[in-house]
């Protein structure tokens, strides 16, 4: 009996260890944004999230990265794909985005434009109604409301369905010319020739008849 109990306990420990390894291997995704003081505002993120919010402990006068998805188990094959409709800064200023955030990452698809790429260096990174994120060429990205630089306390990321691709206009076959009842020039010429031939035959026949009568 003791041996059976020991074996049962060992089996239970083995199962528990396997579950722990599986849970660890699954890993977690984290959405991060980086402030100008290099502090990260972070939030866990899942495939079925419709929105997540990151908040800095200290409000940022500017940021260097508006957001990206990180994965805590490097080399794992887990995947996530979300369509970012817009960002809401400080809980009230919405900025349209319209961009996919995808892991495994392909050509920066896991993150938004930042100070290290051309889109993030541009004068206008993202812009909404009276507000937006504006680059300065590669050192920071500033949030402005009606043209005035404003501290960033939090960013909410709003996810949704990507718009369907617009159907392209398919080329249509050019209509062919409708056949007309009018005879073509060729047909007319052929008919005229046939008519002349018949007339010649008729005249020849009449001449033969006249000759016979005269005899």
Task: Describe, in plain words, how this protein is organized in 3D.
This protein has about 220 residues and is an alpha+beta fold. It contains three helices and eleven strands. It has helices at about 1-25, 120, 185-215; strands at about 30-35, 40-45, 50-60, 65-70, 80-90, 95-105, 125, 130-135, 140-145, 150, 150-160. Strands 3-11-5-6 form a four-stranded antiparallel beta sheet, with no helix packed on it. A hairpin with a 4-residue loop joins strand 1 (about 30-35) and strand 2 (about 40-45). The longest helix has 30 residues, at about 185-215. Mean pLDDT is about 80; it is low at about 10-25 and about 205-215.
Quick tags:
alpha+beta, 27% helix, globular, four-stranded antiparallel sheet, 3 helices
Describe what is shown at a glance.
The protein has 215 residues and is α+β, with helices and mostly antiparallel strands. Helices cover 27% and strands 35% of the residues. Strand 5 and strand 6 (93-103) form a beta hairpin.
């Amino acid at each position: 009996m003791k041996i059976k109990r020991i074996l049962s306990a060992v089996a239970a420990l083995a199962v528990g260890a396997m579950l722990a390894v599986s849970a660890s291997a699954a890993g977690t995704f984290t959405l991060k944004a980086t402030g100008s003081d290099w502090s990260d505002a972070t939030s866990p993120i899942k495939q079925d999230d419709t929105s997540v919010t990151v908040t800095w402990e200290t409000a940022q006068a500017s940021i260097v990265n508006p957001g990206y998805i990180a994965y805590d188990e490097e080399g794992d094959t887990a995947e996530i794909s979300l369509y970012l409709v817009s960002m809401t800064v400080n809980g009230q200023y919405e900025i349209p985005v319209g961009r996919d955030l995808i892991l495994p990452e392909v050509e920066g698809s896991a993150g938004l434009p930042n100070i290290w790429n051309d889109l993030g260096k541009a004068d206008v990174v993202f812009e909404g109604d009276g507000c937006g994120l504006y680059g300065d060429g590669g050192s920071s990205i500033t949030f402005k409301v009606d043209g005035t630089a404003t501290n960033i306390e939090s960013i909410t990321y709003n996810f949704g369905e990507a718009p369907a691709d617009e159907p392209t206009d398919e080329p249509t076959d050019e209509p062919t010319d409708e056949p007309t009842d009018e005879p073509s020039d060729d047909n007319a010429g052929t008919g005229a020739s046939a008519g002349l031939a018949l007339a010649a035959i008729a005249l020849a026949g009449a001449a033969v008849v006249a000759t016979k009568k005269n005899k």
